[in-house]
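Working notes for the structural subgroup meeting. M.R. asked for a predicted model of this chain before we commit to crystallization trials. I am recording the input and output together here so anyone reviewing the notebook later can reproduce the run.

Input as submitted:
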Amino acid sequence: MTSATAYFLLPLDGALDQHTVIVLVLGMLVTGTLLALQAVGIVRSPYPRLRTVETLGTAVPLFLLLLSAT
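Returned structure, recorded in token form:
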């Protein structure tokens, strides 16, 4: 499922409450962990530029989806 598909399928009509803040914080932790793991992969990669493009192609849509859903 692409991030655009997930954005349109998720129920995004809720109000800002404690649950939303918890989901945002957990999502940011997951995104940060993903980026940290990807950074290690970039350093160890024989083609670091290619790996960086792959990482950005994954992280940017995920981050935008998280912020727009919150």
